[in-house]
Amino acid sequence: MELGLILTLCGLGVSFLIPAFVMIIISKKRKKSCTAMTTAVVTEIKTRSTSDGRSYHPVYEYEVNGITYKGTGAYLSGRVPSVGTSVTVMYNPDNPKKSYIPGYDNKVLKILSIVFSIAGSIPILICICIALLA
Fold first, then answer.
1. Cystine design at 13: which of 20, 100, 121, 124 (Cβ 3.0–4.6 Å)?
2. Using one digit for the tens of pLDDT, what is the confidence trace for 82-91?
3. Domains: count for the chain
């Protein structure tokens, strides 16, 4: 098999696997550090135009030790909360401005990491199969 093809397939695979691992690490780190729970109120829904339509991101506010913090959730599809809705938020007790909405934000990172892992594994598996058959 040609060296250029091997490098191209493996490089393509690795270029998808690296973001997958980064997303997994971010999700695990966030889950480990954000251990305190509170209730936040959705104050607005940010709408962003994308190539395939619109994406919706809830903006929420919550209070810790008398200080109000603001956060933006991950893209939501189908279950967009209304402004004024209460949502559960996990935050970092050592740095309360770091927070996420459990169920939404973790789910997005998990789905993306799976998609990127599959997309990265396919070229590497093709490379292995070609090498074994050659």
1. 124
2. 899 998 999 9
3. 1
